[in-house]
Amino acid sequence: MEFYDTPERPKAFSMDSLEFFFLIAQYFREALPLRLILLLIACQKAGGQIRLTQEEMATVLDVPRAKTNEALQEVMSHGIVFKVRRGVYQFNPPYSYRVAEFIPGTELVEAEYVQVDQEKTIVRIRRDESLPDLVRFPSLEHMREAIEELRKKRAEERAARRLARAQRKEEGSAQ
Fold it and tell me: Which end of the chain is less crowded, N or C, counting CB atoms within 10 A of the terminal residue's CB?
């Protein structure tokens, strides 16, 4: 968490949901979506906007653009970020939100900061009916449910593998 708190600008900070980190660490089995989320968090501006093209993301992550697009689509399908326009994405404020940012180059005179009210961003997102409900009314519950489904599926696959091994072993000892 970064603080840019002054008497004139109280409560200026960046925040990331620990619950969000906990769930994405469990849900995303592949490294690329996690790496992409971390990149997006690191590159967001005040107000949660990320100004990066997919080509720039691919360059930073050192992966093909097609793989970046695939990972970004997966991340967006959960309402974590959404596309504003080409090269501009928006973090969903409950997951990661930069309330303020330092303006580089102002430190020698009087340091300047940009500050954006999170509540105004949330209201703007909720009013935008072109966005899916998962973006407008974010909830990590769908990821919790998906994690349980993944765990159940993996448990069934492990049980099937154990059964197949036992059958092969039984067939081998019968010969």
Answer: C
